[in-house]
Amino acid sequence: MPLAAPDVARLFTPGSQYDLGSDRTATVVALPETELALPTGRLVACDPVVGLVDENEPFLVVVPPGRYPVTLAVVEVRNAYGPGSSDTRTAAALLRVGDRPAVWWQLALSEGQDEQALGQDDFFGYGVDAGAGCFLDASAVGPIGELVEQDADPVVDAIHDAGHRPATVADPATGHTMVAFRTGWGDGHYPTWVGHAEDGQVVCFVSEFFVVPQPGRGPAAG
Description:
Blueprint: H1 8-11, E1 17-21, E2 24-30, E3 33-38, E4 43-46, H2 51-54, E5 66-78, E6 86-96, E7 104-107, E8 125-128, E9 132-137, H3 141-150, H4 153-162, E10 167-170, E11 177-182, E12 188-196, E13 202-208
Antiparallel strand pairs: 1-2, 2-5, 3-5, 4-9, 5-6, 6-13, 7-12, 8-12, 9-11, 10-11, 12-13
């Protein structure tokens, strides 16, 4: 089976604690939030520096156009590098498009991806080489991508300055925006899931960054 979805409710509940082994624990300490415009309802998740050029296919699932909150699950890792040390990491990013809870999940797929082709604990996701990911509307990929190609420094600076809060980057000419965020321990390959209500309606998207363990996974996952 493909990689199991995380326990999103727990991941986005302040105070949730995880045992990371070797006397390390991670606790959800903050849920910073901002808003993202999706004028076409077609969501793209990618590296905000490299991915806008190389990986810009929207997910197949389309939601009603609108403005939706993006929330980050920020955890504090105790004894991260030894006794008494600590670190703060972004464990996941959630874009909520509905008020009802998600009761079942599927991997967010783009054109040409087939979940049936995946092996045990495999997944489709996006690669990160800049230590950050982002959400943006498919219509914003071109304008924001041109800004990044001309000069990526403002984007990198905005993400750095935001710390573990979501950073909003806008194209002044068109008004298109993206929301960028740090990804777990940095570079890697990260999945996104689509959350559905009981009647099948899409209520959220969640990108996970493998900071804390999750149930239902093989030993190599998470």
